[in-house]
């Protein structure tokens, strides 16, 4: 079983692609000091934890190929900068999670530089090596592509060597081989360094299902048993959230050892539903997944998101339709779980693949010379012509930003929405697949949520057992402000209903 959960699990998390968020020194690259300058913004928005994409030295723009696990990428700042970021976040009640890449390193990492020198090098065992005959004998020279890797031929040549090394994602990212006890000890040192010496609050764990290659797949889950014990010993309250990009059935066993995993099935279902305008029996499927997860860990944390740094941005999925962008947020932030917002979702940023263009700079203002603006890439999707910058949205009550902010405030203040552990969710059947409706039961105050996914106004009938739910807590449909005035819901609108308050009768005089 995983270590005991932190006593205060952050309810709303925010993923920052560091290079693109905010520049502090005019070099065009987002950095740690830029993030520090926006901590008040994040706290005001309602964020309780931030996940930083990799901040270690790396030859790539995305930093997922690490060359030094103990240092900070110089483009992003220094270790002192990171300590200030950590302290500033903690003062504001925010946790900080590091993206930890333990599936692979860069070919430029000292371990691999040594490993590729000869078969006798002690670091050789840190990676996977085979001759072509061995690869052919095992039938593993090719692989089927997956959502998280399009590589078909994962074996790569090392000049002057009759053995090839295994790199699932890219030839510049050789996979680590955890059959090596020496490697396991090195990873344990890294975990202890960041949790104890530096004081981070936890890790987002990259490629968690690929720790061992496909022919050794069953070992990947057991690796996290080893890892979770290291984390628990270093800091029992540290939080772990795994990237297990797979179907729910494959994800579930990882809850034995990780506090949370991302719910990719939910992400893709939401995207399909927003495009098609129809429910896919989402609530029934979610409840089934919860029942499966709790078999492995009764205290599982369901990490939910619309999209992340590897997926087309939700704004582009819905073709920039502002009503659908808001609807996506309304659904995500009224479902149970621990939501992760991808930076810029709160202003409706756009982005389609290839990857750099789903990681474009955050638009703080419309000023093309804004010194905060990252300039490492010329954006193709998120520009002042296509997306209103934050500076404009803050003062617009109808903006995507204020929609997010209102929902986040409501989520944190309503216990029925704020519940993370033991997800409280029941279906509400309205007999129309253009409507997505569900019930969030809670001892303090239960809530009913209804979304119109379709392109037309829809009439509905509230079930008899929910007839008291007529007080409107939140609505994107103007006719419904404080009370449910009509059983109609406009296209792409959402409404959150609470039981009507009963006025006390005056005592007889």
TrEMBL record:
The keyword Hydrolase applies. It catalyses: Endohydrolysis of (1->4)-alpha-D-glucosidic linkages in polysaccharides containing three or more (1->4)-alpha-linked D-glucose units. The keyword Thylakoid does not apply. One of its GO terms (biological process) is oligosaccharide catabolic process. Coiled coil: none annotated. Its EC number is 3.2.1.1. It is an enzyme of class 3 (hydrolase). Residues 15-411 form the Glycosyl hydrolase family 13 catalytic domain. Keywords: Carbohydrate metabolism, Glycosidase, Hydrolase. One of its GO terms (molecular function) is alpha-amylase activity. It comes from the Bacteria. CDD domains: AmyAc_bac2_AmyA. InterPro entries: Alpha_amylase, GH, GH13_cat_dom, Glyco_hydro_b, O16G_dom_2, SusG-like_C. Belongs to the glycosyl hydrolase 13 family. This is Alpha-amylase.
């Amino acid at each position: 079983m995983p270590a005991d959960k932190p006593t205060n699990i952050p309810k709303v998390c925010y993923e920052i692609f560091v290079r693109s968020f905010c520049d502090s020194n005019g070099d065009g690259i987002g950095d740690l000091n830029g993030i520090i300058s926006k901590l008040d913004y994040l706290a005001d928005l309602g964020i309780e934890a931030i996940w930083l994409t990799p901040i270690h030295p790396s030859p790539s723009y995305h930093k997922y190929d690490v060359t030094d696990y103990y240092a900070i990428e110089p483009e992003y700042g220094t270790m002192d900068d990171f300590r200030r970021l950590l302290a500033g976040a903690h003062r504001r009640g925010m946790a900080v999670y590091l993206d930890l890449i333990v599936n692979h390193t860069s070919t430029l990492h000292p371990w691999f530089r040594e490993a590729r020198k000869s078969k006798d090098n002690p670091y050789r065992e840190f990676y996977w090596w085979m001759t072509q005959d061995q690869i052919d004998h095992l039938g593993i020279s090719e692989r089927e592509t997956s959502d998280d890797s399009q590589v078909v031929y994962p074996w790569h040549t090392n000049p002057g060597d009759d053995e090839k090394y295994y790199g699932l994602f890219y030839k510049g990212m050789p996979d680590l081989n955890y059959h090596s006890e020496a490697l396991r000890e090195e990873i344990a040192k890294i975990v202890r360094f960041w949790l104890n010496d530096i004081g981070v609050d936890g890790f987002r764990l990259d490629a968690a299902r690929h720790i061992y290659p496909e022919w050794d797949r069953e070992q990947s889950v057991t690796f996290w048993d080893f890892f979770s014990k290291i984390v628990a010993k270093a800091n029992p309250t540290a939080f772990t959230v795994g990237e297990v990009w797979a179907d729910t059935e494959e994800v579930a066993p990882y809850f034995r050892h990780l506090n949370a995993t991302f719910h990719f099935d939910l992400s893709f279902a939401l995207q399909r539903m927003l495009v098609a305008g129809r429910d896919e029996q989402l609530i029934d499927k979610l409840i089934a997944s919860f029942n499966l997860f709790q078999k492995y860990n009764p205290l599982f944390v369901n990490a939910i998101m619309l999209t992340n740094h590897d997926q087309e941005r939700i704004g582009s999925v819905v073709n920039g339709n502002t009503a659908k962008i808001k609807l996506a947020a309304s659904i995500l932030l009224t479902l149970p779980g621990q939501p992760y917002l991808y930076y810029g979702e709160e202003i409706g940023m756009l982005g389609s693949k290839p990857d750099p263009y789903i990681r474009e700079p955050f638009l703080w203002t419309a000023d093309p010379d804004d010194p905060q603006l990252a300039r490492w890439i010329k954006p193709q999707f998120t520009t002042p012509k296509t997306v209103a910058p934050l500076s404009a949205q803050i003062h617009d009550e109808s903006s995507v930003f204020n929609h997010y902010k209102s929902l986040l405030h409501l989520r944190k203040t309503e216990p029925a929405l704020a519940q993370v552990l033991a997800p409280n969710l029941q279906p509400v059947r309205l007999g129309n697949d253009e409507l997505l409706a569900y019930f969030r039961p809670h001892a303090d105050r239960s809530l009913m949520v209804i979304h119109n996914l379709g392109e037309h106004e829809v009439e509905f009938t509230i079930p008899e057992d929910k007839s008291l739910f007529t007080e409107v807590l939140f609505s994107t449909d103007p006719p419904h402000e404080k009370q449910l005035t009509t059983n109609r819901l406009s296209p792409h609108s959402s409404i959150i209903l609470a039981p009507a308050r009963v006025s006390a009768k005056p005592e007889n005089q």
